[in-house]
């Protein structure tokens, strides 16, 4: 597993907000956000925008709950945000997440995806000890990790973690 090096210089990892339970016969992929999830997605997007966290590129899983979460970020950040939907993020490995990040030329990239892969990507980027210190209960729904590359130590550092 290769840890990406800049660019990007900032990575945002956003786990989708809370999904509604599957209806009878409904595929997991097609689950929308719950009522709470819609509210949480708007809150986390607004908190990020208020802090000046604005990715140049947002890459989202095509699963409905991720698209719903990405839509909230797009509304909060504005129309200039480049949004792409990638099938490979659904049910992906951590290697896939990191390869997608590494392939980008943008300065700041946001991934909207799923656990446990989101948590594994964060752990790979910042290390196990730093992740456990920051998230002792794991990566919550609608949680946003803000990770910068520290050139002085040639490593990724978690600079903020936003929750609802």
Automatic annotation (TrEMBL):
UniProt keyword annotation of Phosphoprotein present: no
GO molecular function, one term: hydrolase activity
EC number: 3.1.3.-
SMART domains: PGAM (SM00855)
InterPro entries recorded: His_Pase_superF_clade-1, His_PPase_superfam
Alphabetical UniProt keywords: Hydrolase
Record flagged with keyword Hydrolase: yes
PANTHER family the UniProt entry points to: OS09G0287300 PROTEIN
Protein name: Phosphohistidine phosphatase
